[in-house]
Amino acid sequence: MKNWFGSQGNYWSLGAAIFALWLWALPVGAEEPMPMPTPIPTVEAPQPAPEPQAEPQPVSAVLSVEAVSSGFIFTFDRPPQLATGWDNPNLFRLAFVATRLAPDLAAPVLDDGAPARLQLQQSDERTVVALVQVAPQMRIGDPQPLADPRHILLPVYPKAQPDPAANQQTGTVRIVLDAGHGGYDPGAQRGGVDEKDLTLSLIQRLDTHLRRLNYQTTLTRSDDTFIPLAGRVSITNDSQAQLFVSIHINCSDGSSAPYGIETYYTTPQSARLAYTLHRHLIARTGKPDRRVHVRSLYVTHRNSVPAVLLEVGFISNPAERAQLRDPAYQERLVEAITSGLQEYLGQP
């Protein structure tokens, strides 16, 4: 996320010194010596042309940060570039690229009882980072520009209150549920178990849970069928869904020891969904927390809606493989995902 501009190095040429030893003889009776040969001229090595310097991006300035009832409003002198992520489930990182702090920045004063703590710093000469830590009963929404794009709102609100950006009617929320692999693509295989069968069973159970709560769902596959990655993304677009959740089973090639749960996302708009679902999975199962990762996976990168990929266990670990086949444990996993989706959407 940083632009680094290198400077053109100096080039030096070394002129070669040529020393010639001329020998001549005067014939007997000669009055003039033999003429000396003309020395070979020295040719300097050509100087390489300097490489063109990349033009730095214009730098915007953070003019003020205002604490309002709906969160924090950041004001800039020009529309900023930003990237977001979570350092942990309660610490949100907002990075403004090609940005500096204005010398006379007006920052909010927060008392000890404030629902969120804000730390603003110039991490390098072209990046400003805002770290927002929320109280346990609060949560953070996705940053959004206001009518004037020089103003960015970072929503902060109680967990019991629906996300202002979320659709509050369960019957109008559509979620695409994606069972990894399928058909001639079995996914990971261990102990006579195929990943494609586990992911389909989990997605079918999740579909049942969500439909009971009046959510609309679309499955990328409902049987043992191969669906290309591009086709899975197209299903999201064609169904006009608001969310995409993909379930996979992890595998370790080098050892059967690793176990636990990992979650992946790509775009900043998917960060909160990823951390919310991951937190519920860890709390409900008690499995080792293998963290939330940013990775450019096809189905999470190409989707235009918040999209996550959940690796809910290791098929290569015999004990965890047995759990993943157990219907009662599968129910525990989908209950965790369901409660995470309800929290994300601001619904009980």
Mean pLDDT metric: 82
| Count of helix runs | 6
Rounded to the nearest angstrom, the distance between the terminal CA atoms is: 37 Å
Roughly how many Å is the radius of gyration?
32 Å
Class per helix and strand makeup = alpha/beta
Which fold name fills CATH's third level, the topology of the largest domain?
Aminopeptidase
Question: How would you describe the shape?
Answer: globular
Number of strands: 18
Keyword list:
348 residues; alpha/beta; Immunoglobulin-like; Aminopeptidase; 2 domains; 6-stranded mixed beta sheet; 18 strands; globular; MurNAc-LAA_cat; N-acetylmuramoyl_amidase_3; hydrolase; N-acetylmuramoyl-L-alanine amidase activity
Folded structure, characterized:
- The chain has 348 residues and is of the alpha/beta class.
- It folds into two domains: 60-158, Immunoglobulin-like; 170-344, Zn-dependent exopeptidases (Aminopeptidase, 3-Layer(aba) Sandwich), CATH 3.40.630.40.
- It contains six helices and 18 strands.
- It has helices at 195-212, 229-239, 271-285, 298-301, 318-325, 327-344; strands at residues 60-68, 71-76, 81-88, 91-97, 99-106, 116-124, 127-134, 138-140, 144-145, 151-158, 174-179, 189-190, 193-194, 216-219, 243-250, 261-265, 289-294, 307-314.
- The radius of gyration is 32 Å and the shape is globular.
- Keywords: Hydrolase.
- Residues 37-56 are annotated as: Disordered.
- It holds the Pfam family Amidase_3.
- This is N-acetylmuramoyl-L-alanine amidase.
- One of its GO terms (molecular function) is N-acetylmuramoyl-L-alanine amidase activity.
